Amino acid sequence: MRIEGKHKCNSAYNECNHEYEWMVIIPQHINSSTLQVEKIDKVQGRIIEKSENKCIIRTICPNCHQDNVFEYLN
User: Fold this and answer.
1) pTM for the model
2) Confidence at residue 22, expressed as pLDDT on a 0 to 100 scale
3) Which DSSP string do the residues of 29-59 spell out, in sequence order?
4) Angle at 24 between CA 72 and CA 19, to 5 degrees
């Protein structure tokens, strides 16, 4: 499974403002009856914090190569 979206660079070091598509692949349980294969075709993100209705995601802007942290609402 994966979640995806668009994000505008919010780097604290420069005024990049580059908009890019991102995705996060959610690991499947090892006991799943079938495993789903995901194509990596966008900037990879990582979930750094998760709650019931939102995730905090970190990506790296492909334009300025700076960390970007933002909320994703489920």
Assistant:
1) 0.81
2) 96
3) PTT-SSPPP----SEE-EEEEE-SSEEEEEE
4) 65
